[in-house]
Amino acid sequence: RPTMTQNVNFGFLLCLACLVSAKLPYSPSGTIKPKHALDINNSHFSVGAETMDRGYTTFSSWQQYLGPLGVKHARIQLGWQRCEPVKGTYNFTWLDEIINGMVEQGVSPWGQLSYGNSDYKNGGNKEVSSPMPTESEAEAGWNAWVNAILNRYRHHINEWEIWNEPDVQYKRSPGPLDPVTYGQLIVNTSRLLLANDPNSSIYVQIAGNNIYLNSTLAYIKQRDSSLLDLLDVTYHPYTYNPDDSYANEGVVESHLKLVRSYSPSIRLLQGECGAPSTPGKYGALSGYNWTQHSQAKWDLRRMIGDVGYTGQTGGIPTSIFSIVDMCYTSGPVEVAGENTNTKGLLQANCSDPAQSVIAPKLAYYAVQSLTSTFASDTMVNPNINVSMTSSTKRNTFRAFTHGNTGLSFVAVWFADDTPAEYVLADCTSCLQTIVVSNANFGAGPYQFADLLTGNLYDVPTEQVTTKDDQVTIKMYPVYDSPVVFGAADIWK
Q: Phi first, then psi: what are they for 216, rounded to 5°?
């Protein structure tokens, strides 16, 4: 079982522990121990492993980092054209390596069926801007490929996402990407999936355009209304402040209101979202002076914000984008020096034809701390109420029940802006008073966990008082990255 990244993690965190202890009124008493995916039963956390269908990352260069990350799911694009480079001839060697390699590490792949195939008339192409397959020849080729994928991988994949961000591409180049064409693709492909596996989970996909989604769902309702109870929706909420997505009448609420108007059984899943680690390169959120610190904070706030969201039963399953930097060699970015999407948790060497990994970023270690803390069937607890009595700054709280211990824990952070560069040791006015009701923290001892660094801090007994069903926690360190409070047993 891979241990390399775990060893790197401990050394890295010990250095950060020295930095932080000089300024905080607490000294680190330890660090969160990473857990391999094989040691975690299940979770709502996924990582993006996209673009391998177009050769923008190489699985063999980063696969050793996947299991130690601690996520249980990975999103992959199945790549019709790479699977069928010559019409009628399939080559699944590349995909076999990826899917089998993920499963061996305890990670379940979920597959996106995309993009087109230029060997077919009206079949589209391999790029993100590809039109959808239309007319008989291309549709027959698509159906044959979907059936071949199902027959080969149905024992490893039962979650299927159909296409990627059609609403974005339709806005850029109207044509065979309109909601009706997409609705037809959803209906026809869903029937193939369900015929092969009635228990398939099938996802309609949008970046975030509700008008497009409404038109797509309206077509599906008209064509086959029974499908609506069998579909869920993935969305991509790229906002500079991740907490803006959860605001009143924000992205999440508007999506939920819409999908529930078609079927109360439709669930939202956050299927792709992440922040860059460098400023001004490429893609969503590129207009900010990002660093590895602000990237890691953003990723943590998005992931915990999703799984702890109480507006949907069980929270929102979430996929962080992505495992490794993407080295674009075709499509939208071909300018020398500007072809790297730095949203990866791992830094890639895009000058190397093998797209080798230079090093894990701070966000990789932060996600390790997160997945370890949330391991063992941890679930959002909507009955716990949290408030901050000592600050008027905008803040976010998420509350959970730990699967192994049955004990409660809470995560708290300031949410008034895009994550900044500073660390917990640098914050001013960071010690707050938090009041929690309807929680079961146990008898103690208690700890704070700074997920950005993985540092654990013992909480003095006198700072935690209980009266009736309320627990008051004094001197709770709060900044623009999640700090968790709970029983020390959670991290054993």
A: -65, -50
